[in-house]
């Protein structure tokens, strides 16, 4: 069985002969068994926390290279020529921690009828399609966004910040208030 232990920077497609099609959910798992496009089995033994993106290249034992591709999935796609409408939809999807693919004139996410209804209530039309899905990696992601493609893509989310840190609150620093009294 082929074993991949390393993800490389994106390489010219001429150097890669094998393709591994994985759904978004499967690209989140660094350790798994899968099948290449030709049916050959591969074991992914990547460092824990590795998230694969469409176009990533894996180096297998023996030096063989395999390109990761986003497998077609059922997605919902919002298209609009009005950037404010798309920004509003992206805001509401992001507020719900939904992995979201952003592109020129569209926002896409894994199909969900509840989210479709929310977007339609914002006055936007939703199209359901089967297409590759490659969301934004997120502001704290460790990979660069995929190069622009002809298909819509999503977003991972993480909480790398320590939320236990207390932040100063400027309204509590009033000098004319008796500090022994609670604020009004």
> Helix segment count?
3
Mind summarizing the main beta sheet? 6 strands, mixed
Radius of gyration, in angstroms, nearest whole number: 22 Å
Task: Write the element-wise H/E pattern from the N-terminal end onward.
Answer: EEHEEEEEHEEHE
**Oligomeric category:** single chain
Uncertain parts: 143-184
What tags apply to this protein structure?
184 residues; alpha+beta; 6-stranded mixed sheet; 4-stranded antiparallel sheet; 3 helices; 10 strands; disordered C terminus
Written description of the protein model:
With 184 residues, the chain is α+β, with helices and mostly antiparallel strands. The protein has 3 helices and 10 strands. The strands form 2 sheets. A 6-stranded mixed sheet has the order 2-6-5-1-4-3. Strands 8-9-7-10 form a 4-stranded antiparallel sheet. The radius of gyration is 22 Å and the shape is elongated. The model is unreliable at 143-184 (pLDDT under 50).
Question: In terms of topology, how is this protein built?
Answer:
Blueprint: E1 2-8, E2 18-22, H1 24-27, E3 31-35, E4 41-45, E5 57-60, E6 65-70, E7 72-79, H2 83-95, E8 101-103, E9 106-110, H3 113-121, E10 126-132
Parallel strand pairs: 1-4, 2-6
Antiparallel strand pairs: 1-5, 3-4, 5-6, 7-9, 7-10, 8-9
Q: TL;DR of this structure?
A:
By secondary structure, the protein is α+β, with helices and mostly antiparallel strands. 14% of the residues lie in helices and 30% in strands.
